[in-house]
Amino acid sequence: MECHVYYEGDDDPEKCTARRLEQFDEAILYRKMSQVPYGVVLNPHADRALSPADAEEGLGTLVALDCSWESAEAASFRMNGVHRALPFLVAANPINYGRPFRLTTVEALAGACCIFGERDRAEELLEPFRWGETFLTLNEEPLRRYSECADSSEVVAVQEEYLADAEEDETETANDGDGTTAE
């Protein structure tokens, strides 16, 4: 699975996972959107969830946008390709550890590879990061389940289970044990 990244360069270069992927020859970075090849574009604003069925649509090419979360507007994702949103996954990176949907570029690419049944490729992408294996461990069950889905609607159904569980966990945390809400 080829990984390509449109690089906006608006985040901290020391913490940029896309630049590190480029250093290890695991991804190709582009500074002009027009240069980015056609593929499956990982876009949090997309109308459909990524599923194993999308692997053939992108012709073996994954495309991500590397930018600051503050600038990740829908207009930033005007790349050619099949746009898909990643389903519920939890970040393992030090900045957003444990936060759902707040993935780094490498986490997004690795998650997509796992959904496409290419776990070995995901491990290769994550190897240069000391927290990389943690991402796969934290998301082991959802990634396995998403990879077993036939299409986007099945992925969304699985995601809804995780979102309901996360909401339930939040409610339990807010309660102090006697059914009242903690203040």
TrEMBL record:
Q: Where is this region: Disordered?
A: 163-183
Classification via InterPro entries: Tsr3-like, Tsr3_C
Domain 16S/18S rRNA aminocarboxypropyltransferase Tsr3 C-terminal positions:
40-163
Q: Would the keyword Transferase turn up in this protein's UniProt record?
A: yes
Which Enzyme Commission number(s) are listed? 2.5.1.157
Pfam families in UniProt: Ribo_biogen_C
Q: Which UniProt keywords apply?
A: Cytoplasm, Ribosome biogenesis, rRNA processing, S-adenosyl-L-methionine, Transferase
Which top EC class is given? Answer: transferase
Q: Where in the cell is it found?
A: Cytoplasm
Q: Name one GO biological process term.
A: enzyme-directed rRNA pseudouridine synthesis
**Listed GO MF terms:** rRNA small subunit aminocarboxypropyltransferase activity; S-adenosyl-L-methionine binding
| Reactions accelerated catalytically | an N(1)-methylpseudouridine in rRNA + S-adenosyl-L-methionine = N(1)-methyl-N(3)-[(3S)-3-amino-3-carboxypropyl]pseudouridine in rRNA + S-methyl-5'-thioadenosine + H(+)
Q: Name one GO cellular component term.
A: cytoplasm
Where are stretches of biased composition, namely Acidic residues? 163-175
The secretion signal range is none
Locate the residues binding S-adenosyl-L-methionine.
Answer: T17, L65, L86, T105
Q: Which HAMAP family match?
A: TSR3
Family according to the record: Belongs to the TDD superfamily. TSR3 family.
- The name of this protein is 16S rRNA aminocarboxypropyltransferase
